[in-house]
Amino acid sequence: MPARNGQQYIERLRERPPALYLRGERVKDATAHPGLSGGVKTVARLYDLQNDPSGPDMTYTSPTSGEPVGLSFITPKSVEDLDARHNMMRRWAQVSCGMMGRTPDFLNVSLMAMAAAGDYFAEDRPEFKQNIRSYYEKVREEDLVLTHTLVNLQRSRAPSESVLNDNTDIALSVVKETDSGIIVHGARLLATLPIADEIAVYPARSHRLPTGAPGRTSFAFALPCDAPGLRFLCRESFDLGRSRFDHPLGSRFEEMDALAFFDNVFVPWERVFLLGDPDRCNNMSRHTHQYLHSGHQVVAKNVVKLEFVLGLANLMQDTLGSGQQPQMLQMTAEIIEALETQKALLRASEAEAGFDQWGVFCPAEMPLMIARHLFIRMYPRMGEILQLMGSSSLMALPTEADLQGPLAGDLGAYLDTDTATAEERVRLFRLAWDTCCSAFAQRQILYERFFQGDAYRNVVLLNSLYDKEPATDFVREFLVSEL
Asked: How far, in Å, CA of 346 to CA of 342, rounded?
């Protein structure tokens, strides 16, 4: 089938609802639930863009069906392919102002890379190559939405042998193998965007299985989100049921985060991609270059998010007439520096792209890694800057109802500025509040602190991966030089 539209996504979610639990109750219909429907509608908007002829290309021709399929599934073979995919990912990120971190393109590009590296999976078992390739084709041709879960829950306080190692004392595990598949039991976090069709379960690059980990904790597989025994426990929703005026971001872009509980869940063999080999699981992301393609999507999203912050900060200053104050100029410059740094690193990753051993044209590793590492510090600072810029205007902030209430005349008399009416001012600062102060805003900051991998794990990875020898040799040669 060709690339889906939004209504088709919604209809499938209604027909095959995942077992979502929110505030102590089973969600009957995520598409109508007040804490989830805003996010569902936004994901539907993304799919509608694939069928909008007035915008940039969002599809390409499927190599198997000849139908148009989502451009995030493309296997890049050239600079032009990377550019086309970048433009597509940027357009999707703009829909949510960069506030939805797990839009479907994130896992689409990951799955593409894993399928292209099918021989890596075949080294575990020969049939796993066909499994991963068939699954990629299924997701591409049916245009499915994926969530994923990577990390085991932690209970033991015993020190690990490595900061990168995951504990396995209560890990999701294979409890039985049968002729038709495996049975898994346990829990994983964090499943962001559980309003999805399928869930992928595979090892995290930054959370490795420890040396000597039992083979039963080593696997990669995928399942429909409505698989029997699979349940999602959602955190409290930050879509508070308020209007788009009062909560312009939370009412639209609640993608939700959940714990995934697997209660003796059956996984057919054709859905299994790795099994029983901790080393192969630990090295999967790096050897398939899956993280390079997901990193490309992440940094493209981060650029959009910083563009949004810059535009918001500029409008706040225009409205308050504070743009020429030295402290405002300094903070605006800091936003610009963050934005241009992310843009430059993204462009460098594309300019230095090359073919990997699987024949895929991959963005360069180090610029993406640096960009993601920097964003851990950048985005919390963006929230702080917006708070400092907004100051008291973010505190006693009227609601939409107040603008129609008995004090509406007073609001017009006292909140009008040279450039904005009271309503325009309140609307703008409601948006600023939802970006830097609300519960939705704080989830964004927490998400960006850890979505890229926590800072110390990234330090360890960066030091282990970066080739420092050329610079070291340069200094050694200088020390013995007589010139």
From this structure: 6
* 454 SS3 class: coil
* CB environment 189-210: b (16+ within 10 A), e (fewer): bbbbbbbbbbbbbbbbbbbbbb
The answer to whether the predicted template modeling score (pTM) of the entire model surpasses 0.70 is yes
Query: How deeply is 262 buried, as exposed, middle or buried, from its count of CB atoms within 10 A (0-12, 13-18, 19+)?
Result: buried
Q: What is the DSSP letter of 248?
A: T
Cα distances (Å, whole numbers) of residue 311 to 233, 246, 295, 302: 36, 19, 24, 14
pLDDT in tens, 62-96: 999 999 999 999 999 999 999 999 999 999 999 99
Please, are residues 273 and 132 in contact by the beta-carbon 8 Å criterion? yes
Dihedral over alpha carbons 360, 366, 367, 369 (to 10 degrees): 100
CA dihedral over 76, 79, 82, 83, signed as positive or negative: negative
Contact criterion met (CB below 8 Å) for 449 and 438: no
* Residue 261 C-beta-side C-alpha neighbours within 13 Å: 9
Cα separation, 113 vs 72, whole angstroms = 11
Q: What is the pLDDT of residues 28-66, one digit of tens each?
A: 999 999 999 999 999 999 999 998 887 779 999 999 999
What percent helix, strand, coil does the chain show, rounded to 5?
A: 50, 15, 35
Total count of residues recorded for the chain: 483
